[in-house]
């Protein structure tokens, strides 16, 4: 019996444990932190051995294969010890793909991947396909494979998940864009992070597809300098293609396999230039899968968007409060500020992942009337923008941030939570941060 050790007792870890047990592995879960009660119960009910708040080396280093949760860095001592012993360390995606005949659409990118994943899933499900949603979002891919119900999965894939693949290949891959993010995990080398994203296509064959942003410099440079086997489908808001997706006279046009799909952009539910790209990418998948045009049209016009991503919370005293807690890097915040049409008080800060704020400068000068720093260490933000805005204050909790936002605004303004940073200094995660923002706004 092969021994499967799982590092991390969260959603991906527990899902992998359930699939491993079903497939006849001797499974052990080890988490350096505390495993949440609901996951402990699941493991116990399924007769899976586990430990938390420690890694017992002798129970881990006897593994045949190890599934590492994406949050655990390669530099951690236990992972180093496993690699020194030559024990394979893989991601949940790699483990699960070996145990299903389902096909996958794999979606990665620094920003836009959640929206693109949700929209792609919405289009395929509305088109009548038997499709699951997983990866970095919702219920773990491995857990769903254990219950094996779907013919297709739409998977949101982070660079950390892609770092742990060996044979996984999506039939259709999407790279939404690439901008510096998580550089602390890639020795502060942007090239390493870019290579990591392109692992999504490394096993693709000539009848597979790679859909990508042709306006993105990092992506187009990489494609010029590296050979891949998949068929390329570009999308762009500045160029037009014979085979691909683009904008023309306020229409989104998608040409794939000599067949054209045209939709007026004003009827697409998602707003903003970046969302137009997300819509192009998702529509390209729907066209490849031969979903009916009428279905695509209807799905694009009724899509609800993603929680914590430019989510309009409430208007109070004619001031719009917007929750963009999912913006955990500078590039995501760039899109948020770019989409603002009224004077804005910007709530920013958290755990900095090696951010360069200079690209936000023109937008801050143009749109931001005040900045509220919400983090334990705000020095970089203060140094970057202190001289640019009239008012800049520091707070250490969401209630104060929202109250100060209310004081600093007048009718017709907006308060935007778009932190450009990770949330772990003051919050559990970006969802917790977003929910606290919404709660604080509702309590005003």
From TrEMBL:
Q: Which stretches make up the Mur ligase central domain? A: 107-285
The answer to whether keyword ATP-binding applies is yes
| GO MF | ATP binding; UDP-N-acetylmuramoylalanine-D-glutamate ligase activity
Q: What is its main location?
A: cytoplasm
Q: In which pathway does it act?
A: Cell wall biogenesis; peptidoglycan biosynthesis
Q: Say which enzyme class the record assigns.
A: ligase
Keywords, alphabetical? ATP-binding, Cell cycle, Cell division, Cell shape, Cell wall biogenesis/degradation, Cytoplasm, Ligase, Nucleotide-binding, Peptidoglycan synthesis
Q: Which GO terms describe its cellular component?
A: cytoplasm
- Source taxon at top rank: Bacteria
Q: EC number(s)? A: 6.3.2.9
Specify the Mur ligase C-terminal domain's residue ranges: 308-421
Q: Which locations, inside or outside the cell, does it occupy?
A: Cytoplasm
Sequence positions that bind ATP: 109-115
Q: Name one GO biological process term.
A: cell wall organization
The UniProt function text for this chain reads: Cell wall formation. Catalyzes the addition of glutamate to the nucleotide precursor UDP-N-acetylmuramoyl-L-alanine (UMA).
Tell me the PANTHER family matching this sequence. UDP-N-ACETYLMURAMOYLALANINE--D-GLUTAMATE LIGASE
Q: Which family, according to the similarity comment? A: Belongs to the MurCDEF family.
Q: What is this protein called?
A: UDP-N-acetylmuramoylalanine--D-glutamate ligase
Source species of the chain? Flavobacterium caeni
Give the lineage: Bacteria, Pseudomonadati, Bacteroidota, Flavobacteriia, Flavobacteriales
């Amino acid at each position: 019996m092969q021994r499967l050790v799982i590092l991390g007792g969260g959603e991906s870890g527990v899902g992998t444990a359930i699939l491993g047990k079903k497939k006849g592995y001797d499974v052990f879960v080890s988490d350096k932190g505390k495993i949440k009660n609901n996951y402990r119960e699941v493991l116990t009910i399924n007769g899976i051995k586990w430990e938390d708040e420690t890694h017992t080396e002798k129970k881990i280093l006897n593994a045949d294969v190890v599934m590492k949760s994406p949050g655990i860095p390669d530099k951690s001592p236990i992972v180093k010890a496993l690699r020194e012993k030559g024990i394979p360390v893989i991601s949940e995606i790699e483990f699960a793909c070996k145990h299903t005949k389902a096909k996958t659409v794999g979606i990665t990118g620094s920003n836009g991947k959640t929206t693109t994943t949700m929209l792609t899933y919405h289009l395929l499900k509305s088109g009548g396909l038997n499709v699951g949603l997983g990866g970095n979002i919702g219920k773990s891919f491995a857990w769903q494979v254990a219950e094996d119900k779907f013919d297709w999965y739409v998977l949101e894939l982070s660079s950390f998940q892609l770092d742990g693949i060996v044979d996984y290949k999506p039939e259709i891959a999407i790279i939404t864009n690439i901008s510096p993010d998580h550089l602390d995990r890639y020795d502060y080398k942007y090239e390493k992070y870019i290579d990591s994203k392109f692992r999504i296509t490394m096993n693709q064959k000539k009848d597979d597809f790679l859909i990508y942003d042709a306006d993105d410099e990092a992506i187009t440079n990489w494609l010029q300098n590296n050979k891949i086997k998949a068929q390329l489908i570009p999308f762009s808001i500045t160029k037009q293609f014979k085979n691909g997706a683009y904008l023309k006279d306020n229409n989104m046009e998608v040409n794939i396999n000599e067949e054209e799909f045209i939709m007026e952009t004003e009827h697409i539910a998602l707003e903003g230039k970046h969302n137009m790209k997300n819509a192009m990418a998702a529509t390209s998948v729907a066209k490849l899968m031969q979903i009916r045009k009428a279905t695509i049209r209807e799905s694009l016009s009724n899509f609800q968007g993603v929680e914590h991503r430019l989510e309009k919370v409430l208007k109070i005293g004619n001031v719009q409060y917007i929750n963009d807690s999912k913006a955990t890097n500078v590039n995501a915040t760039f899109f948020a500020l770019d989409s603002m049409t009224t004077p804005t008080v910007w709530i920013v800060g958290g755990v900095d992942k090696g951010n360069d704020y200079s690209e936000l400068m023109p937008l801050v000068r143009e749109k931001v009337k005040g900045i509220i720093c919400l983090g334990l260490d705000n020095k970089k933000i203060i140094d970057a923008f202190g001289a640019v805005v009239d008012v800049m204050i520091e707070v250490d909790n969401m209630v104060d941030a929202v109250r100060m936002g209310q004081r600093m605004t007048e009718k017709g303004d907006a308060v935007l939570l778009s932190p450009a940073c990770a949330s772990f200094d003051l919050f559990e995660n970006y969802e917790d941060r977003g929910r606290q923002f919404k709660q604080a706004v509702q309590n005003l």
